[in-house]
Specification:
alpha+beta, 5-stranded mixed beta sheet
Amino acid sequence: MACTCHPQMAKKLLIFMEALSALQKRLASDGSLTLSIRVHPHAKKTALTDILDDGSLKISVRSAAEDGRANKELLKFLGESFHIPKSHIQILSGVAVRMKVVQMQAA
């Protein structure tokens, strides 16, 4: 299916898809994957929005950063994106801040 969006947006989308595919393959081959993630809570939608210069992922989540709701939504998004149960994902550091280190185990 062809993208009818702006050419720069289409290019960015392609980069995200390639990055996600590479990370999915790495998780499958290594059995685990550790990522640095910058979370942007209370966004319009939950999505991977950028790959930062340091290699960390910027992920926007709809939930507010209250009572762990943004963290729960982040884990749900990662589980769906990597096709693994949420129970195979844990936040190693950054539970109460936007910059997080997350580890995932292959299913």
